[in-house]
Specification:
By secondary structure, the chain is α+β, with helices and mostly antiparallel strands. The chain has 2 domains: 261 residues, Aminopeptidase (3-Layer(aba) Sandwich); 116 residues, Alpha-Beta Plaits, CATH 3.30.70. It has 9 helices and 21 strands. The longest helix has 18 residues.
């Protein structure tokens, strides 16, 4: 029965759906889901300055209890084709592993849930609602995908009870972790402006490098916090320092840096922005320099509090794998950051060990197990 998940994944991998190209992946899913009785709606969205993106919403049933599976069929480019042992869009199986771009992130996860869902809705007496929210814009700007799809659901009066995102959540094998939240992500840009001059006459200039160095030391000097019950400590990482000065005898007029903060539930973006500004003021306040500081909020921190439905998912994992998963908030961001505004959401998928790499692959056994986990959970969820 679970062999269908491998076939579904192979068909999806064979669709060259590199963001923002649909590549036939949504066409394939729509054909399979529509053939099984799901009502399918294609949702193409556009916005000036961003690529057009096609998306798919598919729903079976109209019952009150509604589980929505969310994911993406778009993938990152394959990279160096000569580095692939097997073609990136062939979906070949060798030595118990399925190779191809998107096998882990996350066409494999979609295939496992697809196999489980089709099996479940065949059963007599199904009275709930089961849906798929599949975007083609997760690896891209994430503007014409999940966010606008969720807005469309709202206009249609569709209100999922819970959601599972099939992102690869496990470091090594199925069952290690359920993602119940994610840290927030805040990007910062700092530009320090001084006065250009000759290095032999520093009193006639004002060096912005001195200022930006002091500011960065101030930002890195103190830990933001020591972590919380479900989150690691917040931390700031400097990702770029630039001056653009190609000479050795000129004090430049400007120095720039970029930084990112991954933060836990002790902070909000507003609180962090105020804290960062205060630290920079402390560092530069007595210097003959000016500065510009700007921020971009990539994602808010969120947590889905453990409850009965997460316990049902945990039990399903244990029955299949004999592993009790950790309830994790580690890693980067996903579209769960948008879905959490619509309904409680967790993430559970395959291993993330090879995502975005040359020779991306997943273990076939893991796909069988994940499909079985999803099946057992669906049975529990709709009892």
């Amino acid at each position: 029965m679970t062999d269908s998940a491998i076939e579904f994944a192979q068909k999806l991998i064979q669709c060259e759906s590199v963001t923002p190209v649909e590549g036939g992946a949504l066409d394939y899913l729509q054909g399979v889901l529509g053939g099984a009785g799901f009502e399918c709606t294609r949702l193409p969205f556009s916005q000036e300055g961003t690529p057009d993106v096609d998306n798919l919403y598919a729903q079976f049933g109209t019952g009150e209890r509604h589980l929505m599976f969310a994911g993406h069929t778009d993938v990152v480019p394959p990279g160096d084709l000569d580095g692939w042992t097997y073609p990136p869009f062939a979906g070949e199986v060798h030595d118990g592993r399925l190779y191809g771009r998107g096998s882990a992130d996350m066409k494999g996860g979609i295939a496992c849930f697809l196999a489980a869902a089709l099996d479940h809705v065949k059963q007599d007496g199904f009275s709930g609602t089961l849906s798929f929210l599949i975007t083609g814009d997760e690896e891209g700007p994430a503007i014409n995908g999940t966010v606008k799809m969720l807005q469309w659901l709202q206009t249609q009066g569709i209100h999922p009870t819970h959601s599972i995102v099939g992102e690869p959540t496990n470091p090594n094998y199925v069952g290690e972790a359920i993602k119940i939240g994610r840290r927030g992500s805040l990007n910062g840009w700092l530009s320090v402006n001084g006065k250009q001059g000759h290095v032999a006459y520093p009193h006639l200039a004002s060096n912005p490098i001195d200022g930006i160095a002091l500011a960065l030391v101030e930002l890195k000097r103190q830990e933001l916090d020591s972590g919380t019950a479900h989150f690691l400590p917040s931390h700031l990482e400097i990702t770029s320092v630039d001056v653009g000065n190609e000479t050795v005898n000129v004090i430049p007029s400007e120095a720039r840096c970029h930084f990112n903060i991954r933060y836990n539930d002790l902070f909000t973006a507003e609180k962090l922005e105020a804290l960062i500004k205060d630290k920079i003021e402390d560092a530069l306040g007595s210097m003959d320099l000016t500065y510009e500081l700007s921020f971009q909020r990539s994602a808010d921190c969120f947590i889905t509090e453990p409850g009965d439905w997460i316990e049902a998912l945990t039990r399903s994992i244990f029955e299949v794998t004999e592993i009790k998963p950790s309830l994790s908030t580690s890693g980067g961001t996903s579209d769960a950051r948008f879905i959490k505004n619509t309904c409680p959401v967790v993430e559970l998928g395959l291993s993330n060990a090879t995502i975005h790499q040359v020779n991306e692959n997943v273990c076939v056994k893991d796909m069988h197990q994940l499909t079985d986990v999803y099946k057992k959970f669906l049975h529990r969820y709709y009892v």
